Amino acid sequence: MNGLITTLAPLFSEIESELVNVADSQGKISGNIRITAGEHALTSTLWPLLRPFLQQYPDVHVEVSVDNSLTDIVSGRFDAGVRLGEQVEKDMVAVRIGPDWNMCVVAASSYFDQHGRPETPYDLQHHNCINLRLPTLGGLYNWEFMRDGKEIRVKTQGQLIFNHLASRIDAALSGMGICYVPQDSVAEHLKSGRLVQVLADWCEPFPGYYLYYPSRRQHTSAFTRLIDAVRYRG
């Protein structure tokens, strides 16, 4: 049965493409678009762009698979993926869809009151850090910092390891340690004082997310309009 499905899948894809082409020729923008994106890419960048696009084109259907690993969009039969620019393969077309952003080092004030504040990234090795398990390679993420052109990576230790952004933030809010997360994901907590940022001068901005897709694939009118809708114009 699996062999039959594998054999027929390309045929179904071709039939769907032909149906979409017919709709396009009639001036009706419709079709299905499959995208894979990480949780932060979706919430911070992709979803705010998708919402008005879908309202403008009610006959377009978008499926988003939330996956923090480096998904192969070709074998996964995705139309596109969203990643940081440095993670996009060179044989893909990459379209920038968001502004620069920063990572930040944060913890609850109660944690810093008890354990003190790190003055340099190297001081983090003596703190209880909330770590991230990398989904693709399986190792722990080394925290990356840069200041005045100098880049360093710090291997941190701690009681907690997660593969989920929200869980790391919740643990930090509970006073369980220091976490390293996208600044926009904790902006409200920083504003309210529930979290405190340190080492800000070591967290320089870097280019944001890109929508990427195979260069040789024929695109529907719906996908072409999606690219135009999400393109960053800042």
Features:
D-Maltodextrin-Binding Protein, domain 2, 12 strands, DNA-binding transcription factor activity, five-stranded mixed beta sheet, 234 residues, disordered N terminus, alpha/beta, 2 domains
Describe the structure.
By secondary structure, the chain is an alpha/beta fold. It has helices at 2-25, 39-56, 109-115, 165-173, 187-192, 221-230, and strands spanning 31-37, 60-66, 80-84, 92-96, 103-107, 129-132, 143-147, 150-154, 161-162, 178-182, 196-198, 209-214. It folds into two domains: 1-100 and 208-230, Periplasmic binding protein-like II (D-Maltodextrin-Binding Protein, domain 2), CATH 3.40.190; 103-202, Periplasmic binding protein-like II (D-Maltodextrin-Binding Protein, domain 2). The protein contains six helices and twelve strands. The strands form three sheets. The protein has a five-stranded mixed beta sheet, covered by helices on one side. Strands 9-6-10-5-11 form a five-stranded mixed beta sheet. The radius of gyration is 21 Å and the shape is elongated. The protein starts with a helix and ends with a helix.
Quick summary of this structure?
The protein is α/β, with parallel strands linked by helices and 234 residues long.
Write the layout of secondary structure elements.
Blueprint: H1 2-25, E1 31-37, H2 39-56, E2 60-66, E3 80-84, E4 92-96, E5 103-107, H3 109-115, E6 129-132, E7 143-147, E8 150-154, E9 161-162, H4 165-173, E10 178-182, H5 187-192, E11 196-198, E12 209-214, H6 221-230
Parallel strand pairs: 1-2, 1-3, 6-9, 6-10
Antiparallel strand pairs: 3-12, 4-12, 5-10, 5-11, 7-8
